[in-house]
Amino acid sequence: MITIRTSILTAGVTALALSASAGAQTWSADPTFGSVNLNAGFTPDPYRVDVSAGGSISAQSRFSDCRGYIADAPDFRVHYSAGSLPLYIGVDADAD
User: Fold this and answer.
1) Nearest to residue 28, comparing CAs of 80, 89, 73?
2) For residues 15 and 87, what is the distance between their CA atoms, to the nearest angstrom?
3) For labeling, which of 7, 23, 58, 74 is most exposed (least CB within 10 Å)?
4) Domain map of the chain by residue range?
5) Beta carbons of 8 and 93 less than 8 angstroms apart
6) Are 41 and 86 in contact (CB under 8 A)?
7) Could you tell me which residues are beta bridge partners of residue 80?
8) Contacts of 90 (CB under 8 A, 6+ apart)
9) Contact between residue 78 and residue 89 where contact means Cβ atoms under 8 Å apart
């Protein structure tokens, strides 16, 4: 399950932003589990969607340090119009 939510940061909280190159193999393909358009202050918050990630392509055949299996198309696509609150995306999975 992917959980998307916004949150107000209070004083004294430090945000750490980690960036990584994360891209579907064919990013322009239609997502397997759909997409959503969200604007700042969206409801319901959190917005939740169930997906079954993975696919038939060996991740190691595309990225030498990756293990597991991936799909060619994205699993889910989020279009977000930001406001003053940050956007958080989380994952709750039964396995790694």
Assistant:
1) 73
2) 12
3) 23
4) 1-7+31-96
5) no
6) no
7) 38
8) 2, 3, 4, 5
9) yes
